[in-house]
Amino acid sequence: RAYNFNAGPAALPLEVLRQAQEEFVDYKGAGMSIMEMSHRSKAFEGVNDNTERLVRELLGVPDGYSVMLLQGGASTQFAMVPMNLLADGKTAAYVNSGSWAKKAIKEAKLIGETRVVASSEDARFTRMPDLAAVELPDNAAYLHLTSNETIEGTQLASFPNTGAVPLIADMSSDIMSRPLDIPSFGMIYAGAQKNLGPSGVTLVIVRDDLLEASRPGVPTMLRYDTHAKSKSLYNTPPSFAVYMVGLVLEWIRDKGGLEGIDRLNREKTGLIYSAIDGSGGFYRGVAESGSRSLMNVTFRLTSEELEKKFIQESEQAGFVGLKGHRDVGGLRASTYNAVPLESCQALAEFMAEFQRQNG
Ligand code: PLP
C-alpha cells in the first residue's frame, strides 16, 4: 500500500477495506451487496442505525441532539446552516480562519446579514484567530467556526464559550480525531471523506431546539427537520457510504475511541513536526506553533524548486499527496485517523534523508 497523505478523499483503514471486500458481494448472507439493497429493508435499516449509534457512542452525543447522514458534502452545509438558522432580523457571526471559513462566509452572505467577528487574514491564516474574547452581535443567530483549516494546516486547540448563542462548527477535517464536548455546540457538520469514510455522505449533528427554529420557506430537502424526522431516510441515502462510515467508526472504537485515536494522532504528527523543527531551518512549518494542526501538517522548503524536487522524489519513494493545495503551494502531509504510524515514520525518515542530500 502507498504511503497515502492525501487531503481528501483520504486513506481508509486497511482492516475496514478488507472487511468491506469480504462483505462486498454478499452482505451477511443477503445474497446481494449493500448497494443492491432497498434502503427500506431491515438489513439496511440495521446498517443506518448502527452508524448513527456509533456516532452517538464515540462522540458522547446526548439526548436532545439529532444525528443525520446527508448528501451534498460540507459545501452544502455552508448554505443549509444560514438557510435554516439565520432568521430575519438576526446576524450570523463567523470566524474567518482560512480558505474553508471563507467559503462558508460567502454562502451565508447570500442568505442574510453576516458579520466576521474574528479573523486571522492579516496573518495570512498562519494561525487561528484568538477567540478568547470574541464579541458577538446582540442579535447573533449563531457563531460559525472551522475547527481545522485543511489547506493552511491550522487547528483550534479549544473552543469559545458562546453562552446562549449556538456554536456551529465545520469539523470536516478533524471530526472524530479527538474527544469533544458536544453539549457546548449547537451544531457540528463534517464531510466524511477525511476521517469518517468515503465521500458521498456528510455527518450533521444538531441540537433539537435549533431544528424547531428552522426558517419557513426552506425547500424540503434542504431542511434539517426533514432529515431528522426521517432518520436520514427521507430519500434514497448514499447507502454504501453510510455502511463504510459504520465500519470506520467500529475501527475507531476498537482503537480506544477518541482518546486512543487522539494519542495516536499526536504521536504521528509529532514525528513530522519534529523532523521540521529539528531541521535547522531546512524545513519551515507554515502554521504558528499554537495553531498547528494534528491533521494537516503544512511546511515549506527554502525554494519552490527544492519543493518540486521533494515532491518528485517522494513520489518515487512511494509517498502520495504531499503537494500543498494549489491555492497556497508548499507541502502538506494529511495525517488523518487512518494514516498508519508507519507512514509517518517513513515520511520523517524520508525528510531527514532528503535534507542530508540537499541541505
Ligand atoms: N470544510 C473543510 C474544512 C474541508 O476541508 C472541506 C473539504 O476539503 C470542505 C469543507 C468541503 O467539503 P465537501 O467537499 O464535502 O463539500
TrEMBL record:
An example Gene Ontology CC term for this record: cytoplasm
Cofactor comment text: Binds 1 pyridoxal phosphate per subunit.
Reactions that this protein is recorded to catalyse: 4-(phosphooxy)-L-threonine + 2-oxoglutarate = (R)-3-hydroxy-2-oxo-4-phosphooxybutanoate + L-glutamate; O-phospho-L-serine + 2-oxoglutarate = 3-phosphooxypyruvate + L-glutamate
One of the record's GO molecular function terms: pyridoxal phosphate binding
Subcellular location as annotated: Cytoplasm
Enzyme class: transferase
Residues of the Aminotransferase class V domain: 3-338
CDD domains referenced in this protein's UniProt entry, alphabetically: PSAT_like (cd00611)
Pfam families in the record: Aminotran_5
Sequence similarity: Belongs to the class-V pyridoxal-phosphate-dependent aminotransferase family. SerC subfamily.
Protein name: Phosphoserine aminotransferase
Organism annotation: Paenibacillus albicereus
